[in-house]
Amino acid sequence: YGKNDGALTECRFCDKPRYQNHNTGTTNKKPVPVKAMFYLPIIPRLQRMFASMQTAGQMTWHYENRRSSGILRHPSDGEAWKHFDRVHPDFANDPRNMRLGLCSDGFTPYIQASTAPYSCWPIIVSPYNLPPEMCMSKPYMFLSCVIPGPSNPKAGIDVYLQPLIDDLKRLWNGVLTYDISRKQNFMMRAALMWTINDFVAYGMLSGWSTHGRFACPHCMEHTKAFTLKTVIKPSWFDSHHRFLPSDHAFRRNKNAFKKGEVEMDGPPPMLTPKQVWHIVMNLPKVIEDGVLRLDGHGQQHNWTKRNIFWDLPYWKDNLLRHNLDVMHIEKTSLTTYSTL
Predict the structure, then answer these.
(1) Which of 5, 197, 263, 327 fits 251 for a cystine, CB–CB 3.0-4.6 Å?
(2) pLDDT grade, residue 338 (50/70/90)?
(3) Considering just the CA atoms, what is the radius of gyration of the chain in Å?
(4) Is the pLDDT assigned to residue 339 strictly greater than 50?
(5) H-helix or E-strand containing 194?
């Protein structure tokens, strides 16, 4: 139930009751919701970073320590950051304006020895203005939402992100903030640069399902996934050969990889942000239409929705919108293999 659903007592999509049914015989008891999300506003915490001498002077580190050596030391050295500066020079003019990243993953809050499975999903926002040793440390990883369980919210995660998106829209326009390092007020602006997740959360947030034959969000409908003779599930074995240089020896190796095949195709096309926007602009939004199964899903595409981040006025200008946490995925894979 979002900000416009305060008077509703039933879900407008599934007609399920909003409150738990307790037949206690009393009518003045406050109703208990079936599920409640906790939101911790991020704007006051971002403002407090300029109210402390410990952090206020560090908020322009990304601008004062730029290097052109070609070494990626900080997100500000990357092309996505520089592209955003070129597209939004008014935002880049004040180095105090904040660049944010968002991550989410499910976890089990307690041991499930004999109880039903339960997982909840925190949403964490991190500011990237700080030096590398600070921007990913615990004091500057701001918990903004805790999405309750008991199960994965899947595509419906957009419903829980609404208050955060509202704050991000407000931050894009600017919030009056006092900078103690310069002894002056200024209009602090902020932009969400990207999300960082594992493969499952990537599909939840991006709107491109990471299951099935079209699971790869880069190859998309140009996938080369195939089905083994004795297994129903799709396989992507050797599909990475198309990304190798055209003269690479592995492309012509018919014995070590897929038997009797030579890879001659190049990598799939990389869509620009505006091309992606033209694809998703007419897709249904979960907060307006509920979770729907789109025509052609699984056969022609893997789109599940137009994700809520497209409501941000600058999202279609972001070069990298969703990223995979490689270290997290590697750890999960190694744990799985060691268990097997």
Answers:
(1) 263
(2) very low
(3) 23
(4) no
(5) strand 190-197
